[in-house]
Inverse folding.
């Protein structure tokens, strides 16, 4: 599988949301379907890169019981989800439960994460975070002006 971050987001988007373990399983299934040998131990690093760069965002899934469920990944504000070859077969191969997340609250949590990272970001990362802040405003009903001001100050 091509390991672009938009393709990672595309695999997650295909299901709506996936746990890290489910995404790793999906990547392994894709590699098999594509006839590629891959080191499955590298999947966690690929997934973490997607999270670090806001292509994937961690959220808490709402369980049917009304309790907070497990941590899942959803496509993030900078992602343009794209399906890698053979990805359309994944829902037929994998049994993934339906989950829901609080999408409004998710935007606020991403904004909080941006604000936290703004405190320690170097110039290059700071400029990236400014770009993410604009993407965030298009992705969720939040305003990130204060985060951009903080980044401009540093």
């Amino acid at each position: 599988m091509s390991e672009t971050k938009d393709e990672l987001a595309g695999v997650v988007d295909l299901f709506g949301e996936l746990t890290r373990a489910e995404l790793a399983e999906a990547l392994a299934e894709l590699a098999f379907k594509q006839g590629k040998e891959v080191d499955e131990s590298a999947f966690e690093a690929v997934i973490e890169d997607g999270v670090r760069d806001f292509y994937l965002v961690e959220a808490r899934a709402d369980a049917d019981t009304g309790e907070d469920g497990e941590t899942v990944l959803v496509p993030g504000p900078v992602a343009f989800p794209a399906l890698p070859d053979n990805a359309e077969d994944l829902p037929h191969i994998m049994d993934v439960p339906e989950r829901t997340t609080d999408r409004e609250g998710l935007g606020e949590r991403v904004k909080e994460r941006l604000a936290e990272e703004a405190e320690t970001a170097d110039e290059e990362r700071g400029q990236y975070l400014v770009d993410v802040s604009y993407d965030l405003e298009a992705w969720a009903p939040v305003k990130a002006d204060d985060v951009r001001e903080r980044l401009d100050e540093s």
Summary: The chain has seven helices and three strands.
